[in-house]
Amino acid sequence: MTAVKLISVFSENKPGQTARVTQILADADVNLRWVTIASMGTFGVMKCLVDKPAPAIAALKDNGLAVHFLDALAVEVEDKPGALNGVAKLLSQHGVNVDNVSGFVTNQRAVLVLEAHDIAKARTVLESNGLRVLTQEEMQAAD
Amino acid sequence: MFWDKEIETLDRSSLEQLQLKRLRETAQRVAAHVPFYQQKFAEAGVDPTDIRSLDDLRRLPFTTNADLRATYPRGLVATPPGELLRLHTSSGTTGKPKALFFSRNDVDNAAGLIARAMTMTGVTKDDVFQNMMTYGLFTGALVMHYGAEKAGCLVIPAGPGNSEKQLLLMQDFRSTVVHITPSYALYFAGFLESKGIDPRRDLALRKAFVGAEPYTDETRCKIENALGVEVYNSYGLSEMGGPGVAFECSHKGGMHVWEDHFIAEIVDPQTGEPVAEGEYGELVLTTLCREAMPILRYRTRDITAFIPGPCACGRSHRRLQRVAGRTDDVLVVRGVNIYPQQIEQVLMGLTQVGRNYLIVLDGLDEMTVKVELAGSGFDGRIENVVRLRDEIVARLRAEILTKPNVELVPPGSLPVSEGKAKRVIDNRTL
Question: Is-contact B211 B71, C-beta < 8 A?
Fold first, then answer.
């Protein structure tokens, strides 16, 4: 399976919470490759992709945090106008609903991180249309 | 199992005759020795020698919480000072405490009722009883301690808190029965989980007597599942000698009130008149055997009901419902009466919700319920957290008829208590 594992952390939306989570990860010698934080009123969810998922989740759990793995697809696209649009059109043509998307650009490569309910179908659609879905190892090593 | 089968299964008519005899003795004793009751009888125009039937009880005056505070520190003592053996004070959170005195027989009787109750649930002299309650002025720990000794258990007076040490005691001495508050039981279950201890596999616990704070059936289930024990509901109050007033038998179908020691009435809290059998009202208790400090018709402020019909266990003593609330712990929010237990019942019915919650009242009349998300209740998706929060709001609204704010907070982020939990913070500026 070429899905990547995101770590999702539940926290209160108040000062110091991001610092608390990132301190735990730093103490566990975990490097963040990618992170998003979504807040919803009084609480928020931080999602991250890290170089060492198992020690990261263990450290967070040991500190009493509510954490869970989430599967996502990391898709490599060209760094040019219309790249996200191409992926979005492809998925919509095949009836795949995307829950969350974020992206970043590194060394002339653009990477989209997609969460979808039907992740297996999303992967098939993307790969059969010539897009490269990155593995966990590739993402962990990405720079 | 019976501790005293004859008295526990005494036929109703003999039980009522015994109650009448003891009521007359109690009323005459307080009329002779307690100025407070002498005055009350005079005001009500009651002659205690004139009690001819149990119905005459209704002519006797009530005793209230305020009466006990007003007579602090002397109390309503009916014996010479030399006969007093022990003092407890109530765990009153506001104003003056209540002074409660015990004679030697009172101490022994209180222990006897606990031995009776414990035996009823299957506790034997082979059990190891770890008492995780606060020892001191509060009656709960000491009375249960004496009762467990009377029943023949090995008693470990652990006191509350220091979970590491509690666990060591449980492991080293193979404790089978604990006495604990519901909030500490839930906290302790979380502690065991964090230590990787499975109580069913690693400990010998089989029963828990859970008391000192009100709790719901949902909380009982949570404690039973988390600690791998049977939980028996009990009812008592310091004013009536402590925790042994009413206890559940192994059928767990309501609490048998020991009617050879107490007369229980259930009245309309406004009018003081009895409610119909089976209806909820305020429990009023009269002591029948207490020497040092007999109390007539004590307004407990606890809301409960008699459960009609006999119990399958064969005991003739009537059963009380779990206390549904207190006449004085009701929160009035936006003109609606809300009991904290209603909120607890909703929350503990949801598996995604953890062990701790807090009700905060702010501003003019803003109610916020803070709830810990269970570690296992988070699937990583923010939309499901929102959905859970909205479901809690909807369920609470259906139960309490007003819409509270609900804040889901991470596990372990609310203040924990190892004693009595503080569930309500009222910051209102009304």
Answer: no
Could you tell me if B259 and B19 are in contact, meaning their C-beta atoms sit under 8 angstroms apart? yes
Closest CA to B57 of B33, B17, B23, B16: B23
The pTM is what? 0.68
**Using one digit for the tens of pLDDT, what is the confidence trace for B179-209?**
998 888 988 998 999 899 999 999 999 999 9
- Asked whether the beta carbons of residue A10 and residue B373 sit closer than 8 angstroms, the reply is yes
Euclidean distance between CA atoms B129 and B173, whole angstroms: 10
Instruction: Give me the residues paired with residue B248 across strands.
Output: B255
Q: Does A98 touch chain B (CB under 8 A)?
A: no
Per-residue pLDDT reduced to its tens digit, B378-424? 999 998 999 999 999 999 998 888 889 999 998 888 887 655 567 88
Question: Which positions in chain A touch B355 (Cβ < 8 Å)?
Answer: none
Q: How far is A108 from chain B (nearest CA, A)?
A: 31
Give the three-class secondary structure for A118: coil
Termini Cα distance of chain B: 53
Residue in A closest to B378 by C-alpha: A66
Residue of chain A minimizing CA distance to B352 = A66
Give a three-class secondary structure readout of B256-304. EECCCCEEEEEECCCCCCECCCCCCEEEEEEECCCCCCCCCCEEEEEEE
Q: Which whole-number Å values give the CA distances from A80 to A111, A142, B91, in the listed order?
A: 12, 19, 72
